[in-house]
Every structure is written in C-alpha cells, then in structure tokens.
Amino acid sequence: MRLWIDQSAWRSRKALRKAAGIEMDQVRSIAVLKYGALGDMLLTRPFLITLRQYFPQSRIVLGLISIYKKGIPYDLIDDIHVVDKGERSVSRIYRNYKELGSHDIIFDISATTRSFWVTRLNKATLKIGFIYKGVHRLFYDVAVARSDYRFEAETFLDQLLVLGLSYEWPLEFGLPRKGIDKERPCILYFSTASKLYKCWPAERFAELIRGLSQELPDYDHTLLAGIEDWEREICRNIGEAVGQRGNFRIAKGGDDALRWVMGAELVVSNDTGIRNMAIAAGRPTVGVFFSTLPFRYLPRFGFHEAVFRADRRPPTVEQVRTAVHKVLRARMSKDAPPL
Q1: H or E element at residue 63
Q2: Is 126:104 a contact under the CB 8 Å cutoff?
C-alpha cells in the first residue's frame, strides 16, 4: 500500500514503512471512529461504502458513543464498539476504550478527545486521522487537513484519498428509496433541531408555510414533528399560527421520519439531522442557517440551497421563500436529472 501525501498532510517517520507492509487484499479488520448524532451517522455512509468497495474481505467495526445510536449504518458494517459517555470510573473507561481491539487500519473521522484516546490505546498497523492542534502527532501515523468550508462527508473521504482510494461522484449513500405513498407532491418542513438555539423562529416558519401553501396550492405542505416534548410543542404552535388549510398537516416523525423524507419533493429544515437525512436520500433541500457554518452541510451536487446572512442573523422569510422557489424550478427543469 502506498501513501498519497503532499504538503497539506502529515505523516510520521514510520508511516511509509507501515503502509508498505500492508497488502490491500490481506486487510482483515478496519475500525472507523465516528462519535456523532444522526446526521453524522448518515454522512459516514459514502465513507463506509467506499471501504466495502476496496476491502470486501474485511471486517468493519464502527466506533460510536452511547448517547448517539440513531441512524447506525448496520447494512454497511459488521460490528460496533460503543464508548460509554456516562462512565466516570477511570479503570472502567480504560477497559471500555481498550475493547475496540486490534485492527489493520484505524480511521478516526471524529477528532475528539475520546477518539484520540481510543486510537492511542488500541493497536493497528496504520492509524489515520485529521490534523488537529498538533496533537495528531501523538495518535496517528497519517493525518490530513480538515476544512469546515467543504461538505462534511467529503472531508471524511479525504482520509481514503491518502491511500489512493477514489470514491463515487455524486456521493453514494445507499439509502432505500421508498417513501410514504401520497397523491400529490409534498413539501416537508422540519422546524426544530438538536438544540433550541439552532431553531429558526417558529413565527417565521409559520409565516413561510402560510405563504407557500397559498402560492403552491398543488403541493401538500407537511410539518414533521420532532420526538421531544418541546419539539412537538413548537409544531403545535406553528400549526395554530398557520391555521386550517386543506393542503397543510402536521405529521408524526420518529420512526416514520425517513419515509416522510423519502417521499418529499423538497425538505425545508434547520441545520439538523433531518436535512442530512434528506441529502443522503437524494431529496432536494433548503437549509436555514444562522448559528453554525452552512458550508459543511452544503453539497455541491443535487438540488440544495443553504440560506444564511453575512451578519449571521436569522434569515428572513422572504430569503427562505426565494430559495424554495429556486430549488423547485431547478428540480422541475427539463434538463434536471431524475432523482
């Protein structure tokens, strides 16, 4: 195995020798560490699909954290290793971290304190991660630069480029395509997120839905409720503000969220896992951003818009409305590829 490294990457003095000792068809075990929520799990799928393509004979173990177990890509992995976030005993933490075991290659696509130590405490012929504040020299054999201004799924795949492994473009996520059956095209709205500070104001969502339900009467306009009590309360408030309309409804999310997303013509959402789910499902999206960088969550393929203001204030209703019409026009263009 050869390393493809230029001045933007880092390698240890032993990295070339270690890589040269690995034959691709002899790799038997690979660990991938990703300690993140639903959206992060979905964005690992192109990485795991590419691993399967190049290492079909390998056992792939995905490292997770105990508080985030939604969206685990069981169809692409062989086993999981769970880090217990709530454990306080140093000896038990040590044993928990060590349980990952030995592998031919470890990829750390998390770059967190926990993933650093899990990488450090377990044996692997080659350890690959991201350049991070100089500490990467203590944990990895190879590290690549990570940008917050590129679509995050692509930054994960940079670790595979180091080994000369190319990937499909547009990115392939391998999610099923069956959505909820419906008679008319649907615009799906998701008004909450993992944290309240990431939520576009409810009154603006209500104003947006009121306006679009009138402007686009041939579409069903569905507000998808989150699973937490505070999320459902926000949905109820938005529903009351929108009022009774023949083409508006509130739908229950949870286990049906993926099917609702699959069946949508367009998903309008905050920066949240539901939008990543739509991206992974190949559905057009409009994302509303003001508290986090939009560039990490803006694919340069498909039909996607990220709405944000240069001053980082919440976007106006008109900005989001304009983006919705722009994506729908692009989607309905005679030159648009099929979804």
Answers
A1: strand 59-65
A2: yes
| 152 and 204 housed in the same domain | no
3-state secondary structure of 288: strand
Domain span at residue 77? Answer: 10-161
The C-alpha atoms of residue 38 and residue 71 are separated, in whole angstroms, by 5
Element (H, E) at 248: strand 248-251
What lies within 8 Å, CB to CB, of 298 at 6+ separation is 151, 287, 304, 306
The residue assigned the tokens 């391998």 is 174
Q: pLDDT tens digit string along 119-148?
A: 999 999 999 999 999 999 999 999 999 999
What is the pLDDT, as a whole number, of residue 154? 96
Domain count, the chain: 2
The predicted structure's pLDDT at residue 182: 79
Instruction: Report how far residue 210's alpha carbon sits from residue 202's, in angstroms, rounded to the nearest whole number.
Output: 12
**CA separation for the pair 242, 211 (Å, rounded):** 9
- On whether both 51 and 118 belong to a single domain, the answer is yes
Strand order in the sheet with 29-33: 10-11, 142-144, 124-130, 103-108, 29-33, 59-65, 79-83
| Co-location of 140 and 221 in the same domain | no
Residue 11: its H or E element: strand 10-11
* 169 located within any domain: no
Alpha-carbon distance of 216 to 327, in angstroms, equals 13
Q: In the predicted model, is pLDDT for residue 309 greater than 60?
A: yes
- Which amino acid would we find at residue 60? I
- Contact by Cβ (8 Å): 63, 32: yes
CA distance 58 to 73: 16
Mean pLDDT confidence for 302-325: 97
Kindly report each contact of residues 313-317 with a partner whose C-beta sits within 8 Å and lies 24 or more positions away, as own/partner.
314/200, 314/201, 314/204, 314/288, 314/290, 315/200, 315/288, 315/289, 315/290, 316/204, 317/204, 317/207, 317/208, 317/211
